[in-house]
Design a protein that fits this description.
homodimer; Butyryl-Coa Dehydrogenase, subunit A, domain 1; Butyryl-CoA Dehydrogenase, subunit A, domain 2; two-stranded antiparallel sheet; 19 helices; globular
């Protein structure tokens, strides 16, 4: 049995570094003072550790699958009751804006809670995560009637929500969506088609599910400009506001996946299912992007939460398993493996990367809060630009890195890591979806390079570069020469690689596309290097105590041993399309 | 269904680069001329592709598990017959020395066949691999009687063999072995104890299995110097030389693993099982190390074989799946994903890394042939030193890299990669054992740094460095400035990192231990960088043809986009033990 304990001190530290204090100054967030936030986090951490973490293994072993004999997806034993308790405790509402019926805490606090939720039970956490995104999309785009109909059910988690984008021929390329919505004459629409990869598309934990479905309407223009968004409930909502008759949404099958087996991945079929338009006709993709941007940061948080859990598991094993000895030890002695330098290296890597992910995601959440809730003005606009810039980075870097962390978690366990009962392998399998869904990391890279990097004359990036240089200067003054040097060099190579791309954006588009993935990898390292530099300075200042000393080690380790990877990408960014095998050589027809 | 086609041209090219011609000049290997070798490889490639590759999926889906109702491990449908056909075709004997009853082909040719075998069906391939290692150990260390008893059964594969080292408390630390062997008065021994993680420890594909078991004898000294090696057959061998009565070796259970599910991983119990001493009393570890060194290179080959298969699968998908379009394309068009620069990047990375692994492993196999079969003299001795130096590198780099390749294989498939039916996930799960077994890669790193690097005043490493500089010079002359520069810099940083370690070997042992893993990563890149430089020069020279042009691209890609990762490890090698979290902070008791 894996133990999970919410790392409240680490989370509090990260919240301080990224500036919860400043977020709490935004009008409306005054109640997010430290005492309240710490109490809230402590209580939540206990709940998820006690109630959800023990259900993580059964989610993997049994999974959630369509049971044709009952006609719906059956979740693992205990999950239904856990969801009921989660909803009853009111946990779904904490960071939902007060105007939408929530607790009105900042998204930054929501991010801290999300980390714990995901650490405790990633597959389970997807259900409230999707529900929250669906509610946010309706809150922003739906008519008053629709909001009144659905938000009181979705916000508290009485009903759940899904995102229904993908079809067999429309994955990364949503222009290919074929699901059709036909006007029904009464202002509603009849939706018919098939969607795949719908997480929590069907289940037995709530009495209704609201599907947000991308569909094409008759005579709509071709491509993505002809796609609209519809709210399609699993059961029609009666005059009393409660779930009534089935609405023709059928779960045809569920997938057998590498991981996150507790989260049912459904093939859904709609036949004349009644749907209501969300937002404007033909502007469905715009509405869906609200949901997708929030979800992208949510996927980054999944990388963080999973990594923290994998780290805790590996650390626990290193403190239990005896094997070998250190030079000079009595040959008859065996030591706990956590004494071996290479095991310490693996655990330090995991811990440092977890801390870096946390800072990146919390910082992004803070920027999102400022973009959403600052009073109108240049600060809000700057935050909005920074949010756009950081979103692909906050999705890609933590998800790629989570796979590294989970792999190290297996390696710490040695042969036992390969045995499923140990549990380390589950995190490794679960993590593998992260670089794929909500826009593959390759797509994040294109988003960063082609949309985000160039906008506003690269202002957000230049701001991070300035931050890196400022932190490097302070590190230098504080006697951290090696760390300062790496950070300064990182700022330089990142800047020059960006310049190379920006200059060729129009003239050598394919070369720029070829360099996008190494560039986003550089970007993740640069931003986290900057933030871990802040950690080093803050922990230095804290001085003395054990936790601060450990944070000095992990920050220094990150800067001197992880950040230098950035140099390995420089050649790759600018190598160009001709340094890649051609489709012809790869046997790909034209 | 995954298609596998033996990459005969690529294998032939690699054999030329590493010098099959020179191996064929060694007395006894004259029959390994190109015509013969190419015929052999062609026939073998067809056999494994037709007969074994289609059985790979069922090995994963059904697996090999102990069936308590029949009292033994049951292998998946079709595997027994495939093994029978493999044995009948004589494939187990090809590269076994003629004096031991084999075909007497060089190990280099054996390595080429092993790659294809593993690509076709990794879990299945472990059975002949272990059998071959067991036979080689007996051939080298056992008495004439024992050799006469077992080799005629093991070499052709009539019986199979296992390596029985690990116990619950003796994994990486074999000093803790507790299995006991007590003299029986008639020259044999009674072996009693338990072993875990015994691959192919029990199965239904052959009528007998010979276990090579590490055990302690009464009054033996403590630690590894008190361990002896015993041959313990599953069934006692009758006077007629055939398998007779059971020998008290019981398969207690089989493990549920992350991957290689077709290969049964057994817990074996021995109770007064009759065993015969192999080699000298108390020198069992020395005899076992023969087997382990060969097995370590064998595990490197598993990394190669698995990566080639994962590459073929991803390439196939990239030529079938349509999604999106390129800049400037008609918006209504969709293209095969192999046209997208980022997919080309992933496939090029996979292909380049496969080629680099192949060169490293074939080169190591060539060196092993020279060490084993050259006439006595300085060349043989130099080859022996190079073999010792390359072995940990040839185990660690391809196995770490195979995990990267298999992960990219999933990523190319997008969401489908996460669905088990697609098959890409199997390679990813299978690959994860490689950095763990036969000595974790952390142990390979310690072996490299503490034993191999310093011996003979680092002569083998200096020889590789000289090779890198020579190749860099030729690349420079041939107009490959960028590649020459990276290779030269790689030689420099590798050398200076090695010097840092060598100078601190005695005085700062823990610092050296802390730097071992980044150093072996550097070493893998340096050696493969050198060999890929040779590939670039040779392919340049070949000119004109399509295959040569593709090899120029992958070699250039490797040198300019993969090899630069070496710089990212420089700081890590010399950061020292104090840059790692302490056991105290990690919660590890002293």
């Amino acid at each position: 049995m894996t133990v999970y304990a919410a790392p409240l001190d680490d989370i509090e530290f990260a919240l301080r570094i990224v500036g919860l204090d400043e977020v709490a100054k935004i009008p409306g967030f005054e109640h997010a003072d430290w005492d309240t936030v710490k109490d809230l986090m402590g209580e939540y951490g206990r709940f998820v550790a006690d109630r959800l973490a023990p259900l993580n293994r059964i989610g993997d072993e049994v999974g959630s699958y369509l049971d044709p004999s009952v006609g719906h997806v059956v979740t693992p034993e205990g999950w239904k009751e856990a969801w009921r308790d989660y909803v009853e405790a009111g946990w779904t509402t904490v960071s939902v804006p007060a105007k939408d019926g929530g607790g009105g805490f900042p998204g930054l606090v929501g991010a801290a809670l999300a980390e714990m939720l995901i650490s405790s039970n990633f597959a389970f956490a997807m259900c409230p995560g999707l529900t929250r995104s669906a509610a946010a999309t309706l809150a922003q785009w739906a008519s008053d009637d629709l909001r009144a109909k659905y938000l009181p059910k979705l916000v508290p988690g009485t009903w759940t929500g899904t995102m229904d984008l993908t079809e067999a021929d429309a994955g990364s390329d949503l222009a290919q969506v074929r699901t059709m919505a036909v006007p029904d004459g009464d202002g509603t629409w009849k939706v018919t088609g098939n969607k795949i990869f719908i997480s929590w598309g069907n289940h037995d934990m709530s009495e209704n599910t609201v599907h947000l479905v991308l569909a094409r309407t008759p005579d709509a223009p071709a491509g993505t400009r002809g796609i609209s968004l519809f709210a399609v409930p699993d059961r029609l909502v009666g005059a009393n506001g409660e779930a009534g008759e089935p609405n023709g949404v059928v779960c045809v099958s569920t997938e057998h996946k590498l991981g996150i087996k507790g989260s049912p991945t459904c093939v859904l079929s709609y036949e004349n299912s009644r749907g209501e338009l969300v937002g404007e006709l033909h502007r469905g993709l715009k509405a869906m992007f609200t949901m997708m941007n929030e979800s992208r940061i949510g996927v980054g948080l999944q990388g963080l939460g999973l990594s923290e859990r994998a780290y805790q598991k590996a650390k626990e094993y290193a403190g239990e398993r005896k094997q070998g000895r250190l030079p000079g030890d009595d040959p008859s002695k065996t030591v706990l493996i956590g004494h071996h330098p290479d095991v310490r290296r693996m655990l330090t890597t995991m811990k440092a990367e977890v801390e870096a992910m946390r800072l990146l995601l919390f910082y992004t959440a803070r920027v999102c809060d400022m973009a959403a809730d600052l009073p109108d003005g240049p600060d809000k606009e700057a935050a909005s630009r920074m949010e756009a810039f950081l979103t692909p980075i906050a999705k890609a870097w933590p998800t790629d890195t989570a796979n590294e962390v989970a792999s190290l978690g297996i390696q710490v366990h040695g042969g036992m890591g390969f045995i499923e009962e140990t549990g380390a392998a589950q995190f490794y399998r679960d993590a593998r979806i992260l670089p794929i869904y909500e826009g593959t990391n390759g797509i994040q890279a294109l988003d960063l390079v082609f949309r985000k990097l160039r906008m506003d004359e690269s202002e957000p990036m230049l701001q991070v570069v300035a931050g890196m240089k400022e932190v490097a200067g302070r590190l230098e003054s504080a006697g951290h020469q090696a760390e300062a040097k790496v950070l300064t060099e990182a700022a330089e190579v990142w800047t020059s690689s960006a310049r190379w791309l920006v200059e060729r954006f129009m003239s050598q588009t394919l070369d720029v596309m070829a360099g996008a993935t190494p560039f986003i990898a550089m970007s993740g390292l640069a931003v986290t290097g900057w933030l871990m530099g802040k950690q080093l300075l803050a922990s230095d200042a804290a001085g003395g105590d054990k936790a601060a000393a450990a944070r000095v080690v992990t920050a220094s380790f990150f800067l001197t041993q992880v950040l230098p990877r950035i140099g390995g990408y420089v050649g790759a960014v600018s190598a160009g399309i001709d340094n890649l095998l051609t489709p012809e050589v790869l046997g790909v027809e034209s």
